[in-house]
Amino acid sequence: MELRSPIRLYWDITPLPCPLPDYERICSELSDSRALTLHITDLGTGLSAETLDVVARLSRSPLFLFLTASHAALAEALPLKHSGVKKVYADIRAPEELADFGSAGINGVSFRTSRSNFLMIPDIIAGCIDNGIAELQLPMERLVSGDDPLCLSVGEREALAGKIAAVRFAGKLTVTANDPFLWRVVHPGTPFPDGVCQAGNTMLAIAPNGDVYPCPAMPAILGNLQVTAYRDIVASRIKKELRAGILSRPAVCADCFAADDCRGGCRGRGLFAQGTLDASDPGCGISTGAPSEGMPDTLPL
Amino acid sequence: MAARIMRNPDVLWREEDDARDEAQAALEQGDDVSEVGTSLLFANGQMVVLNLLGTEIWKRCDKKSVAELTAELLAEFDVEEAILREDVSGFLAELAEKGFIAYE
Question: What are phi and psi of A269, to 5 degrees?
Answer without folding.
Answer: -65, -40
